[in-house]
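Data card: per-record layout.
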Amino acid sequence: MTIDLSRAETSINEALGRVFPAAQVVARHHGEIILSRACGWLDPETQQRPTQLDTLFDLASVTKLFVVTAFMTLVEEGHVALDQPVHTVLPEFDGPRPIRAYDDPLKPGEFVQVVLPTQETVDAGHVTFRNLLSHNSGLPAWRPLYKEASPQAAKQIALNTFFSYPTGTRAIYSDIGLILLGLSIERLTGLSLDQAIEQRVTTPLDLKYTLYLPILSKQTEIRNQKSEIPNIAPTEVCVWRNRRIVGEVHDENAAGLDGVAGHAGLFSTAADTATLGQMYLDGGQPSLRSETVAEMTRLQAENGATRRGLGFALWCSDPEASGNPFSERAFGHTGFTGTSLWIDPQRELVVACLTNRVYYGRNASGILAFRVALHRAIAEAIDAAFQT
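The structure for this 388-residue chain is written out next.
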């Protein structure tokens, strides 16, 4: 059987240099790699450093899938339960909290108001880990933690945060919820989050290229190896740090947490990322039980067309959603830097696509259209191959 992926190749070629300067794409069908592509340049101005299959990309929010995987191993081992209140692990996260508008992460100086102003409060003590994982906790999507004087102060803002709506009444994606999940993993394991991810996810799956790049360790390495240029895709010119970011997490809040956080911070390759996807396609083996994966990928919360499992985004009817070209059983996640991982059980398909689209800025329209075109081309190529 021949799968004609020429349209997928065309969609990559057309986006290269326009949507992103560098990319990796790996697609696996029935466990076999059917597409493995590295393209573009790590220095697009000189075009002297081509992207390799082992080039590291900033995963941004695709990090969340690795963190959630680690947490679910703790659930399976009985260290914590999905419907257990978060405050039983993080005692600081308790008590009545006001409902307020939160800072708009993309529009400095503006705020996002989820519900009308109210005197009602939310009891943080009622929020469960299931709420964090399904993004219906009521927590704000984002807060400017990076403006705090230290990582510890940033963590305290997350632990003491106000809410943006009553728990369970909406499903609004929240970085703060996953930051709290990362802190919970640290409390439950007694390890730093990067150590816990290594122990529970990357080592068991033999993901040699997936790791956090903590800020302090990176600075030490640069001092010791000034002549070495890292094989890492550069991202944006950061206004806050006043430099182009290379080998350091793009997300400001993750950077404010020294590069290790539950919502962002991991670097990886498309091949490693696809291996995580294959684990889920295979029912969780060797990391999780099949019933755990089934619970993670069933509908837990929804808000309009948005549908959430535990940690995963689920297929939705919006034709502009990145997972829409796949079957209705599909689940996955995207990252702000231009990354994504989608798993389609009906087609036995995994697609990992890593780019550094924020090299050109934060306008997301190009990457949104590219993801849909790439996914549709791959899905339709598989369907066509099986119809002949």
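Known properties of this structure: The chain is about 30% helix and 15% strand. The first helix runs from residue 6 to 15.

See the next section for split statistics.
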